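Mods, move this if it's the wrong board.
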Amino acid sequence: QVQLVESGGGLVQAGGSLRLSCAASSRTFSMYAMGWFRQAPGKEREFVAAIVWSGSSTYYADSVKGRFAVSRDSAKNTMLLQMNSLKPEDTAVYYCAADINYCSSYGCYATAYNYDYWGQGTQVTVSS
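Not the wrong board. Structure tokens:
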């Protein structure tokens, strides 16, 4: 069983930066990948970014490409999301998730259904 805890959310002005962290409670060797999703009020949960735990391949939604960067610290069982040039439309609850199964395509990483464990979410609010 894996427990995930997000932190680092908050209120920031447009153009600012935030860094989110996702700490896993157990060793991550059994995980194939971890991802970030977000959900704004009245909208469906959407994919943000993912990282393959071994090898560090990364995947991004077009809406955040060039502004967000996902990384991992294997020694600390932690995944990070550096968010720069934030926009009001980035406002959402951000969730981290862990996938223990093999994925072979962007579509696989971007599908919430493929993830097995989820954190409780952290609020990110970007003011204009």
